[in-house]
Specification:
Strand 9, helix 9 and strand 10 form a beta-alpha-beta unit. The model has no long low-confidence stretch (mean pLDDT about 95). This protein has two domains: about 190 residues, Rossmann fold, CATH 3.40.50.1260; about 190 residues, 3-Layer(aba) Sandwich (Rossmann fold), CATH 3.40.50. It has a six-stranded parallel sheet. The longest helix has 18 residues. The protein contains 16 helices and 17 strands. With about 400 residues, it is of the alpha/beta class. Helix 1 crosses helix 2, helix 9 crosses helix 10 and helix 9 runs parallel beside helix 11. Helices cover about 40% and strands about 15% of the residues.
């Protein structure tokens, strides 16, 4: 169990500063609704219904990027999910923000402007340094408690994540609590049967790190995506390199070749590689080729093939636990969703403990009509999920645990 306090421990009638992660795709300048709003709304609604004065912080994008925008639109989307008005102030800790915070009545909700518009927020630094920033020192005295619900940002040492727990009583929100428990289960729970991990996606370094760290915990790995193709290359197949304008494989191979080869050598019996791959044929339709029939890579491979899915399904169905990190193909294109969706369907139909992680992969559940309730947990975290799987510390969780010991 986590060693931090949760909002179950929060005394009544408090002015509460709550950190969410509402970072969203931006289209035509507007934030797009997604699972994060729905999940965080549970914490926000619970706090407001209990009569707390609820002030929210969140970030969007990074300075210099196209998705670095105001949170005004986020307030409207969140209000729809919470079922209550969510006020917005285009200020974070200036006079306008402080006046709006102090004017809140019980049960009212206010969202502050993008935390990353404050220069104190972004540079990674120790919690002690962050606690001494003007951002934290100005805002904290206006609150009775701090709640962190932003598990997906918990691997960051930013002021809004690690500074406030040093100056205020600190608690975990519902997203923080459920994500932490599910994502650390691979290290903390005992499973009676085989533990399987499905690993894919485009970031091979992450996948290899997870495979290396979970050497003793996972019984078998089912590979796809960029990482899967790089492992096929290590096994001697003429794939796993860039063709045309592609820029996915060669650099990652150069950085990870030695580790890939050593993991394959040491855990080869636990690693299952794709037996066929899918690509776009001359007619624009999906085509498949057996890996053994590939003489040279002349096109990009966009999914694992039907034979691979058929090979992976029995391994999933006899598992006691299945963890997913990354998609097996470019599922956003319906032609190349078969691998990812086929594996997710097998997991959904299996009576096992299951966690689907990596922000993008969880989108496939919604896109292809699968039921979220058929999985034990669908994570909205990316980097923090990787950290949890590899056992690396999460700074924002560590400060919550330290705060619990002080309280």
């Amino acid at each position: 169990m986590p060693e931090f306090h949760t909002i179950d421990d929060l005394p009544a009638d408090k002015r509460v500063l709550v950190r969410l992660d509402l970072n969203s795709p931006i289209e035509d300048g507007e934030p797009q609704d997604n699972r994060r709003f729905e999940r965080h709304a549970e914490t926000v609604r619970e706090l407001a219904d209990a009569g707390h004065r609820v002030v929210l912080m969140a970030h969007q994008g990074r300075p210099g990027r196209d998705d670095f925008t105001s949170l005004a639109g986020h307030a409207e989307i969140l209000a729809d999910h919470v079922g209550r008005d969510v006020g917005f102030v285009a200020d974070t800790y200036g006079d306008e923000a402080l006046a709006a915070i102090d004017a809140l009545a019980a049960g009212e909700i206010l969202l502050l402007e993008n935390t990353r518009m404050c220069e104190d927020e972004l540079p990674e630094a120790s919690p002690e340094e962050k606690a001494e920033t003007a951002f934290v020192e100005t805002l904290a005295p206006h609150f009775d408690a701090y709640v962190n619900d932003a598990y997906s940002a918990a691997h960051r040492k930013h002021a809004s994540l690690v500074g406030f727990p040093l100056t205020l009583p600190a608690y975990a929100g519902r997203v923080m609590e459920t994500e932490y428990e599910a994502n650390t289960a691979i290290a903390t729970r005992e499973f009676d049967g085989p533990v399987t991990m499905v690993v894919g996606g485009t970031k091979a370094t992450d996948v290899i790190g997870v495979m290396d760290a979970l050497d003793e915990t996972v019984d078998r790995f089912l590979l796809g995506g960029v990482a899967g193709e790089l492992f096929l290359r290590a096994a001697g197949h003429p794939v796993g390199h860039d063709v045309g304008e592609m820029d996915l494989f060669d650099e990652q191979w150069e950085k990870n070749q030695e580790l890939i080869e050593s993991v394959l050598d040491e855990r080869g019996d636990a690693i299952r590689l794709a037996s066929d791959l899918a690509y776009e044929g001359d007619d624009g339709e999906r085509a498949e080729v057996a890996v053994g029939d590939i003489d040279e890579k002349a096109t990009g491979y966009l999914d694992v093939g039907a034979a691979t899915v058929a090979d992976y399904e029995p391994a999933i169905r006899e598992s006691d636990a299945v963890f997913v990190k990354g998609a097996l193909g470019v599922f956003e294109d319906e032609r190349f969703a078969d691998g990812t969706v086929g594996v997710l369907e097998a997991i959904a139909e299996t009576d096992c403990f299951s966690v689907v992680g990596g922000g993008d992969t969880s989108r496939a559940i919604e896109m292809y009509g699968l039921r979220e309730d058929d999985f034990s947990h669908v994570s909205i975290a990316g980097g923090a999920y990787i950290r949890a799987l590899t056992g690396e510390p999460l700074p924002a969780v560590e400060v919550l645990e330290a705060a619990a010991k002080r309280q």
